[in-house]
Amino acid sequence: PAPRGGRRVTWWVALLKFVHVGAIALWAGGLLVLPLLLARRARLASHDAVQGLHALTRRLVLWFMSPGAFVAVGTGTALIFLRPTQAPWFSAKLAAVGLMAALHVAQSTLVLRLFRPGERVAAWRLGAAGLANAAVVLLILLLVLAKPGWSLSGWGGDWFSPGALGELLGRWLDPLLARVRG
Questions:
Q1: Secondary structure, 3-state, 146-159
Q2: The dihedral of CA 134, 126, 36, 97: what is its sign?
Q3: What separation in angstroms does the CA of 49 have from each of 5, 119, 126?
């Protein structure tokens, strides 16, 4: 079936996807570079060099990564309403994006802490952060490109059928509400 609104919606969807992919590329690229920049901190001796690196990493986070993340999430949310998204792979992708956001926040706060006088971070931690960033970006890319045909049938019984949450909560809440009312 044709999308709502015909050709105009299709044009907007294509534009949103283009902006979405560009924003994700900016966000993911920043996440891949950030641990490398932070690792340079340990090799710098002069105060001026440390301050220059600090300014660079702050610009990366504040001018590129964070706006990229904001635009990626905003356009992705808009696309949810314009395209079908009721697939298990999409839920896995959203979970991976949530992990990407958590890594972004954790490493962005590290930028603030690491450039204080006397602060250090173990090289293995920055290496682990870089590997985690690369793994989550790769996972998102694989999920989006492969769109695996996972099925939830046979897993969780009827938990994923319409109205299942209301029935489940009703079984637990009805007796409790009866006690409160009675």
A1: HCCCCCCCCCCCCC
A2: positive
A3: 55, 15, 20
What the block records as the tokens of 7 is: 């050709």
Radius of gyration in angstroms for the set of CA atoms belonging to the chain, rounded to a whole number? 22
Does residue 112 have a pLDDT over 70? yes
The average confidence (pLDDT) of the chain is 85
C-alpha distances (whole Å) from 148 to each of 83, 144, 145 are 17, 9, 9
Q: Considering the entire predicted model, what is its pTM?
A: 0.76
The helix or strand, by DSSP H or E, that contains position 58, with its residue range, turns out to be helix 47-59
Residue 137 is predicted with a pLDDT of 97
DSSP string, 59-74: HIIIIIIHHHHHHHHH
Please give the Cα distance from 171 to 165 (Å, whole number). Answer: 10
pLDDT tens readout for residues 37-80? 999 888 877 888 888 988 999 999 999 999 999 999 999 999 98
Place of tokens 């209301």: 166
**Under 8 Å between Cβ of 64 and 30:** yes
Q: What is the DSSP letter of 60?
A: I
